[in-house]
Amino acid sequence: MQSERRLSAHTLDSYTGDVDRFLRFLAEHHGRNVALADLGNATLAEFRSWSAALARDGAAATSRARALSSVKGLFRFLDKNGTLHNAALGTMRAPKLPKSIPKPLTQLDAEALLANADDHPTDDWLGKRDAALFTLLYGCGLRIDEALSLNRRTVPLGDALTVLGKGKKERRVPVLPAVAAALSAYVDALPYAGGPDAPLFVGAKGKRLDAGVAQRRMRELRRQLQLPETATPHALRHSFATHLLSAGGDLRAIQELLGHASLSTTQRYTAVETEQLLAVYQSAHPRAKAS
């Protein structure tokens, strides 16, 4: 998964955790450490019991579906290498997933967030860092991991930025002047020296910024500005796509900017726009009001 599919470290950690929990369940079920033969002989009832145990522990349907995918990936690998074969797992169906659409911020909420992001309670340069990070996420549609993996050589930004996305695939995204200005202001205030390979976004001690810190800062701003619970760093990426689409952006172009492998993933944003248009219609149309 790492060398061939080039999945991110975060994804690898999630998949490893899923497999570990499955093996622990099977060991508890057998009352001993499991061997390869136990995996090969695992029954459909055991797989279903494991999934049911995840549900009892509070795992959502999406988490259970990912766990099943992780375990199936392990068994496919073992089968491909001639280690073992288990036909029962192939008949195991993933839980039904709820239909969900991205939850972007409104344009006014996004503007309010960026306008207040630099008001850090402790250090001025940390405020500039937060403003630069959130402006980058919203202005370029980056994933949080993509932004935090950038190094100091990135600044000063030109007209476009090369981003290393999922599967180690590179894409080019245009850079707005506001994004370039926010990044430059942050780097000018940065108290830590560093060469071109030093991390761009750093924490208070100068180490590469952890995503949890950015998420915590977003929660603080969310409470301060009374934004919805769905206001997260990733929601800025959703907002980037939705606001472009609302302004007439081409769906194929937005797909390229987001780095989506499939157009169907990008098409989720059309559902957001339709939902918003329906809400406007229901609140404004005389006949809708009458009903």
UniProtKB/TrEMBL annotation:
* Top-level taxon of the source organism: Bacteria
List keywords of the entry alphabetically. Answer: Cell cycle, Cell division, Chromosome partition, Cytoplasm, DNA integration, DNA recombination, DNA-binding
Residues the record marks as active site: 143, 166, 234, 237, 260, 269
Where is this chain's protein located in or outside the cell?
A: Cytoplasm
Q: Name one GO biological process term.
A: DNA transposition
Gene Ontology CC, one term: cytoplasm
- Family assignment from sequence similarity: Belongs to the 'phage' integrase family. XerC subfamily.
Record-given protein name: Tyrosine recombinase XerC
- Which organism is the protein's source? Roseiterribacter gracilis
Phylogenetic lineage: Bacteria, Pseudomonadati, Pseudomonadota, Alphaproteobacteria, Rhodospirillales
